[in-house]
């Protein structure tokens, strides 16, 4: 009985730690986007530049990855390991494709003549770079989490009754995906 109680306490503590992390990351991005809003009133603000189209495509890719990861969890619950294998690998590929597309978006911004620093920089593009790079750091963390989940899945650690690591990884993945959707919409509509 004590072992079961300790296990429940550990599960609750791990979930709370994830939520504290998510809340602190949310506050960081709230601060960054608030600084963007305040800076928008500057006379040198670049308002007529539209984000490269590839950022929209990367947004679609990351949304699809949330679905594939979610359905991988469902497949494990239904004891369909081969489908879960495929869906987790697809999620990993989509996450890597998202990162590639973000860098391609940066290349397009540079080709359009805007840089992070120096004479060819401006405040808005500097914010775009900071927001996207900060998000990419979290996506890279999400990819590492996903690799750990895939590794544990291949070790047959997850079952319908034991999915804590997978659920924590899935929740973090959903968070960074939702965070990107927020950032994309913010940057797209709030020029």
Automatic annotation (TrEMBL):
The lineage of its organism: Bacteria, Pseudomonadati, Bacteroidota, Flavobacteriia, Flavobacteriales. It is found in: Cell membrane. It comes from Psychroflexus salarius. The chain crosses the membrane at residues 16-38, 50-71, 83-106, 126-151, 172-190. GO terms for biological process: aerobic electron transport chain. Pfam families: COX3. Belongs to the cytochrome c oxidase subunit 3 family. This is Cytochrome c oxidase subunit 3. It is a multi-pass membrane protein. SUPFAM superfamilies: Cytochrome c oxidase subunit III-like. PANTHER family: CYTOCHROME BO(3) UBIQUINOL OXIDASE SUBUNIT 3, CYTOCHROME C OXIDASE SUBUNIT III. Gene3D superfamilies: Cytochrome c oxidase, subunit III, four-helix bundle (1.20.120.80). It comes from the Bacteria. One of its GO terms (cellular component) is plasma membrane.
């Amino acid at each position: 009985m004590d072992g079961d109680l300790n296990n429940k306490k550990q599960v609750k503590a791990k979930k709370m730690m994830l939520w504290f992390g998510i809340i602190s990351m949310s506050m960081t991005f709230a601060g960054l986007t608030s600084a963007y809003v305040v800076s928008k009133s500057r006379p040198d603000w670049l308002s007529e530049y539209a984000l490269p189209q590839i950022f929209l495509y990367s947004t679609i890719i990351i949304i699809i990855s949330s679905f594939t990861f979610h359905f991988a969890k469902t497949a494990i619950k239904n004891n369909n390991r081969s489908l879960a294998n495929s869906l987790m690998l697809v999620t990993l590929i989509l996450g890597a494709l998202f990162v590639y597309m973000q860098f391609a978006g940066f290349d397009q911004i540079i080709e359009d003549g805007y840089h992070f620093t120096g004479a060819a920089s401006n405040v808005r593009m500097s914010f775009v770079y900071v927001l996207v790079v900060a998000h990419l750091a979290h996506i890279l963390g999400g990819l590492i989490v996903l690799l750990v989940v895939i590794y544990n899945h291949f070790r047959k650690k997850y079952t319908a009754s034991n999915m804590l690591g997978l659920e924590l990884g899935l929740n973090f993945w959903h968070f960074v995906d939702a965070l990107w959707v927020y950032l994309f919409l913010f940057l797209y509509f709030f020029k």
